[in-house]
Amino acid sequence: MFGTGSRRTIVWDRIEENDFAQAVTDALAARFPDDPPRFMARVPHGYFDLDRIREDLSRAGFATIRVEAVSFPSRATSAREAAIAFCQGTPLRGEIEARDASGLDNATRGAADVLARRFGEGAIEGRMRAFVLVARP
């Protein structure tokens, strides 16, 4: 790539460009309309503004910055599997339990239902998009 001193990282694009994360976020917003869990939109999909990222890297001392958008399919053997991964296998779980301590299973089922409606029964596929950033001092 750039050689000595270069740094490479990947950041997710906005949540609207990542189908499963968006569907789960929508499902939880319907379940908790007064205080929707926003972990996915706020944290993994919250730092996507390329102008801001370039500015942050420049302030950190990087002079050469290269960005490549990458898109690829996200696959799961079922909507339920994807819902479990998001609702129970990420910090989103804590946000769900903070709103309803005994409601994790119901929230997961609701997310699975939304995923199944949007992407079908059986194995599902959606789109994911991220940015690969390579920076050199």
Q: What is the fold's blueprint, element by element?
A:
Elements (H helix, E strand, L loop, with lengths): L6 E6 L6 H13 L7 H4 L7 H10 L4 E13 L2 H10 L3 H8 L4 H16 L4 E13 L1
Antiparallel strand pairs: 1-3, 2-3
Helix pairs in contact: 1-6, 4-6
| Poorly predicted parts | none
- The end-to-end distance, rounded to whole angstroms, is 13 Å
Work out the count of structural domains. 1
| Average pLDDT taken over every residue | 96
Query: What overall form do the CA principal axes indicate?
Result: elongated
Secondary-structure element string: EHHHEHHHE
Relevant CATH superfamily: Vaccinia Virus protein VP39
CATH topology: Rossmann fold
Strand content: 15-25%
Determine the fraction of residues in helical runs and give it as a percent range.
40-55%
Q: Which secondary-structure class do the elements indicate?
A: alpha+beta
The helix tally amounts to 6
Rg, Cα atoms, Å = 17 Å
Strand order of the largest sheet: 1-3-2
Largest sheet at a glance? 3 strands, antiparallel
Architecture per CATH nomenclature, i.e. the level-2 architecture: 3-Layer(aba) Sandwich
Task: Look at the structure and give the CATH class.
Answer: Alpha Beta
